[in-house]
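Dear support,

I submitted the protein below through the web form. The confirmation email said the job was done, but the results page showed an empty box. After a refresh the structure appeared. I'm attaching both so you can tell me whether what I see now is the final result or a partial one.
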Amino acid sequence: MTGADAPQHAGLSVAARIADRDLDVRIEVAPGEVLAVLGPNGAGKSSLLQVIAGLIVPDEGHVRLGDRTLTETAKGIALPPHRRGISLLAQDPLLFPHLSVRDNVAFGPRSRGTRNRAAQSIATDWLAAVDAVALADRHPGALSGGQAQRVALARALAVDPDLLLLDEPMSALDVDVAPAMRTLLRRVLRDEPGRAHPRCAVLVTHDIIDAITLADRIVVLEAGRIAESGPVTDVMSHPRSPFAARIAGLNLLHGTGMDAAVVPSGDLSRPSDALEQAFGAVRIDGLRVDGCVVGDFVPGADAAAVFSPAAVSVFTERPVGSPRNVFAVEIVDITDHGGIVRVRGDAPQADLSADLTPAAVAQLGLTVGAEVFFAVKATEVRVYAC
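What the results page shows now:
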């Protein structure tokens, strides 16, 4: 897309309802913003990308990119994919096997009317941007997976799209190649000083590393609906959905907010903080979970309590002494997490996890099926409104 067709402020607005896929979502992406879309399989992530790309038309909704309307069901507007100013980078590079790398990248500009010499120059510039100039004369069959994905990125950007759709772009790469590809994507998405208006991107991924290294905001889809959204830091530190909590590696319990509990200074790592820290509680199935209040917290309203598995202590008998939150659990899984042992317990309130050293697991004699107690200090718990 070039010339008069280009929007001046290429932000994205999407609303889509598809009855037979049980999808009903609405998202906004600001110019220059990278939005990560996460969720379990079948949550609607691929359907959302297909709507944006113009591969399917929703029963009801719209897709607007800057000042251009790409889809508007109420007006019968549905531009085909090649007229949307959008590029897609997927798991499979999908390079043309009969063309050289340079010709693969030049294909897009040429198909839009750019003369061959100019298209070749554009291709060379983008191959340089993705550190792939040395590959220009090779054919796709001679490329490694990481090399092919870099070329696919250059091809996607060679048409100067206002929106880049990234569909699990690192999932097919070897673990030692993916970090370099993330670095490359971040550089390309963040550092384009010559562009008249910033490009936005939508990243669909299962990998939280992709989200935290590339995205500005996260949207979590569950069962075709937005379960939560917000800046990456907020969602990862204070998740409100089970899926977000799981990928953030945190324990999450939902319940009802309660008035602040009295937490003795002995439960604080720094007693002087006692006067500055507000405490609250969340009631979950008759159990009170005390913690430090984050943001708005209204007693009687929906609330969440979250804490790290690393903050959990495990006891074979119910602990007594300093105030703490205690959960009776049955161990359902014990797994190695790179030198730390993740012990997962089934409590009446929720599945909870504790991270222990191998020595601690051996000393406690923990086995699947054992009934134990998970305990966490109130100062290690965050409570907030949902």
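Response: this is the final, complete result; the empty box was a page-load delay. Confidence is low (pLDDT under 50) at residues 1-8, 264-275.
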